[in-house]
Automatic annotation (TrEMBL):
Protein origin, superkingdom: Bacteria
A Pfam family hit: NUDIX
Protein name (record): NUDIX domain-containing protein
Natural source organism: Dysgonomonas mossii
Gene3D superfamilies: Nucleoside Triphosphate Pyrophosphohydrolase
């Protein structure tokens, strides 16, 4: 029997025109929330600032981050016993962004267009469900 392991992560929620920004991971070949793993000595917001700079070359103003929710889901593309714990923060984007490092592309999705993708991440599906229930995306 495999022992369950947890990974602490953060995700950025950027919504424009009722659609959610997702980043395409070249490594995992799937669309994810921008963000990533929280390092041992970091607060979630610090990790989000670091990850978003690495992935999207965007300097986040921490004062503008608004905690939205926490999700728990199997870590996509990882070993079966790895569970992702993710704090998700809303952020209003005014700057231009571009993909960097392992991020191949960025795109805004509604829930229907995301569900048409060949690879679907359970955590992203959970976020879409919550955002739709709150009337933030279509």
């Amino acid at each position: 029997m495999c022992k369950i392991k947890f990974i602490r992560t953060v995700g950025l929620l950027v919504i424009k025109n009722d659609k959610l920004l997702l980043a395409y991971s070249n490594n995992k070949r799937a669309w994810y929330l921008p963000g990533g793993k929280i390092e041992t000595d970091e607060l979630p917001q610090q990790s989000l600032v670091r990850e978003i700079w690495e992935e999207l070359t965007l300097k986040i103003d921490v004062k503008l981050l608004k905690f939205y929710c926490h999700i728990t889901a199997p870590a996509y593309g990882e070993e079966e016993n790895l569970i992702m714990e993710q704090d998700c923060y809303l952020y209003e984007l005014h700057e231009n962004i571009s993909p960097n490092n392992e991020i191949g592309a960025i795109k805004f999705f509604d829930s229907y267009s995301y569900e048409q993708e060949p690879a679907q991440v359970i955590g992203v599906l959970q976020i879409f469900k919550r955002l739709k229930a709150d009337g933030l995306v279509i």
